[in-house]
Structures are given as C-alpha cells and as structure tokens.
Amino acid sequence: MRLIQNMCTIAEYPAPGSAAAADCCLGAAGRRLVKIAVVGASGVGKTALVVRFLTKRFIGDYERNAGNLYTRQVQIEGETLAIQVQDTPGIQVHENGLSYTEQLNRCIRWADAVVIVFSITDYKSYELASQLHQHVRQLHLGARLPVVVVANKADLLHLKQVDPQLGLQLASMLGCSFYEVSVSENDNDVYNAFHVLCKEVSHKQQPSSTPEKRRTSLIPRPKSPNMQDLKRRFKQALSAKVRTVTSV
Ligand SMILES: Nc1nc2c(ncn2[C@@H]2O[C@H](COP(=O)(O)OP(=O)(O)OP(=O)(O)O)[C@@H](O)[C@H]2O)c(=O)[nH]1
C-alpha cells in the first residue's frame, strides 16, 4: 500500500532513474548514499515497515502503493549516510507464476541493497521470498547485493502460517540476515534490519577499508638491519682477527 500523502515527516522523492531523482541525490551534498528497495508480496506490510523505519510510527492506514521513494539520514559507524528507501508495489502471483513489472525491475536494478519482506500469516508470501531473491540475483549478476529477509506480523500468532525457524533456514540458505518483526508493535527490530543492511553497503562502498586490508596494514614489517649494529659487529670481528694474528 501507499503511505498517505500528507505525512509531513516523510520527504517524498521522484521515481528512481528520473532526472528529478538525480537532482535531489543527497550524495551530491557530500554524504554517501545508500539506496534500498523493499520488496515482497502484496499486503505483507512493506509500507508499514518503511514508515516505521522512517518515523518510528505505525499508522495502520495506507493507500495502495504507487511505489514511492523516501529518504532519511542514518549514523553508521560515526558517519552520516543518506538513505533512500524505495517502497514497491506488491508482487502479484498468477496461475502461471509471478509477474515482475518493469517498474519493480527498475527499482531492484537501482538499489544497492534489498529488503525482502514476507508475512508470517501468509505462507505464499514466504514461498515468494526465495523466488524474489533469485530474481534480485539475476538482475544484479556478478554482484553480491546485500539482502535482508524480514518476516513481518509476528504479533499475529493466532494467524501464523510460517514458523520463525523456516524464515531463519531460508535466510541462511540464501546467505542473508534474518529478522522476525512486528512492525505494529516494535520499531527496534525494524531499525536493526535496515541498520545491518546499511552497514553492509557502507563496507562494500569502501573496499579499501575492508578488514582484510586493514589487517594486512597492521602486520609488522620485518625490521631493516640496523647499520650501526652491523658496523659494531664488523669492528668486533675485525679486532678479534687482529688480536689472533698479533698473538701468533
Ligand atoms: N497486525 C499487524 N498488522 C500489520 C503489520 N504490518 C502491517 N500490518 C497491516 O497489514 C496491512 C498491509 O500493510 P501494508 O504496509 O500496506 O502492506 P504492503 O506490503 O505495503 O501492501 P501492498 O501495497 O499491497 O503491496 C495493513 O493493514 C497494515 O496495517 C504488523 O506487524 N502487524
């Protein structure tokens, strides 16, 4: 669904790829930019999740999603990053499979990282998650895009169709982080999911500061021979030889 327009706490941005979107890129103001797309089946709580992350609030009243882009700033390891979050229209499941719209594909291609959302009350949305992950990989061939899997609506236990263990298994199979959240009841887990993703992107954007490189630079270099010491030892050896010769 689409966030109600008059929420003044959220800045709306034009669709990614448009000239206007390029103009309002916060990265130009010196901040590094992290672009995140939130994808999943219809009704799993994508808009609610994005709103929680941006405003810490759960409103529970949304219009149908037209695919909006929002922004905020986040502190990651002492640096302020500009985060753009793209809410996407829910994916429709048809008899002959899934239909990925060109709009959704554009969003996924645009993104530096993806949040895949399913609802614990909807087993189909869980099944869709792994197919979506595959689709993301196909659109970013050769690049390991950071992905987080989020199981939403954890508060609706009486309607549960997906065990948390399944979500965990799926995420570890896909090599992603996993969060089970209730957007309606808690904002901490939501924040953590986005935070982990931003951190991963931030590290990817700075390959020179990867732990491997830092470690390499910390390995002590072998000391170069001390010339004074060498000279002293040479003199000692020489005088010993002279002494030997004199005594003969
Ligand atoms: N109980 C409960 N309801 C939630 C939670 N998250 C979202 N909802 C409700 O689920 C419904 C769908 O939420 P949306 O955020 O609009 O879902 P969406 O994935 O954006 O939907 P589409 O735009 O159709 O793709 C709304 O009525 C929300 O209030 C949650 O954690 N718990």
From TrEMBL:
Keyword 4Fe-4S: no
UniProt xrefs under SMART domains: RAB, RAS, RHO
One Gene Ontology term of the molecular function aspect: transforming growth factor beta receptor binding
Enzyme Commission (EC) number: 3.6.5.2
Superkingdom of this protein's organism: Eukaryota
Entry keyword annotation includes Lipid metabolism: no
Catalytic activity: GTP + H2O = GDP + phosphate + H(+)
Chain residue ranges for the region called Disordered: 205-226
SUPFAM superfamilies named among the record's database cross-references: P-loop containing nucleoside triphosphate hydrolases
CDD domains: RERG_RasL11_like (cd04146)
First-tier enzyme category under EC: hydrolase
GO biological process per UniProt: negative regulation of transforming growth factor beta receptor signaling pathway
UniProt keyword list: GTP-binding, Hydrolase, Nucleotide-binding
Pfam families reported in the protein's UniProt record: Ras (PF00071)
Family named by the database record: Belongs to the small GTPase superfamily. Ras family.
Protein name (Swiss-Prot/TrEMBL): small monomeric GTPase
Lineage: Eukaryota, Metazoa, Chordata, Craniata, Vertebrata
Gene label: RASL11B
